[in-house]
Each structure stands twice: as structure tokens, then as C-alpha cells.
Amino acid sequence: MSNFNYLKKLEVEGKTARCEIHNIPGEPVLIVKPATEANKPYFNAVLRQSKRNVRAVQSGAINAAMLSENRNQDRELFPKFVVVGWEKVSDADGNFAEFTEENCRAFLDAMPDWLFDKIRNFAGDCSNFMEDAPVDVESLVKN
Fold first, then answer.
1. Cα-trace Rg, the chain
2. pLDDT digit string (tens) for 110-143?
3. Reading across the β-sheet that carries 29-32, which strands appear in turn?
4. Taking the model in full, what pTM does it have?
């Protein structure tokens, strides 16, 4: 039987990534966990909160209000389960802000939707959590 253990290196559970925010002066960095099934506490919270939307989704009644509600749900869940630290985040007076769940929530709440969506997209893309060194498949393949 063939051995495919090299694929285990592609797991993202328990990994973090640096999400650089180039659109904000000072270019702060959020340290994030995946906003995917690999982050079980986050994913379970999403599933619990999404139960109320199941009928609407099944009937195809998705609308802008539902999308906004999902974004707001993530603004609540990201400080608890996804964002685990930050660098170079400044307050309105230009002072570096301490990373706390409360400060993180205030920072994310203050962001325009389009910018928060960039963070959501980054955290939802497992490829952002991969190690820099790609798996060398050619050296593993013996034809």
C-alpha cells in the first residue's frame, strides 16, 4: 500500500497566519486562525448561529440583509475565535493598542465592511495557513 503521509503537512488546524492590512496607516497585522472547519470553536459557533437561517437558505431567500447579518456575526466571533493577536494596531490618538478581545471587537466594528470582508476572506482561505515550503511531490513520486 502506498504511503501518503506527506499530505498531513497540509493540515491547517492549530496554525496561525499574519494578515497584513495595507489599507490602514501603519499597516497593522492581525494574527489569525483559520475561519474554517479547521477552527472547531469558531465553526461550531457559526453552526449554532446559522440554525435560524437554514429555512431561508433552503428556500433560496438569501438577500443583502442576510449577508450583512453574517458579516456582523463574524464581527462578534472573530475576536473570540479567529483573531488571536496583532501588531502595529493604533487607536485614534496614534497609540499602539493592547490586544484584548474587547479592543479587537472595537477595531473590527470600526472597519468599513469592505475591509473587514478582506480579513474574512483571508482567514477563510486555508492556503494562507500553509508552510512556506511547498510539498515537493516530484521527489516523492517514484515512477
1. 18
2. 999 999 999 999 999 999 998 764 555 555 555 4
3. 17-20, 29-32, 83-87
4. 0.81
Asked whether residue 89 is assigned to any structural domain, the reply reads yes
Look at the alpha carbons of 131, 136, 140, 143 in this order and tell me if their dihedral is positive or negative: positive
* Structural domain includes residue 105: yes
Report pLDDT digits (tens) over 68-78. Answer: 888 999 999 99
Comparing CA positions, the residue from 77, 83, 111, 109 lying closest to residue 18 is 83
Of 79, 123, 119, nearest in space to 97 by CA: 79
**What is the rounded average pLDDT for all residues in the chain?**
87
Q: How far apart are CA 40 and CA 73, in angstroms?
A: 16
Cell numbers of 25, please?
496607516
**Is residue 77 a part of any domain in this protein?**
yes
- Count of beta carbons in the 10 Å neighbourhood of residue 12: 20
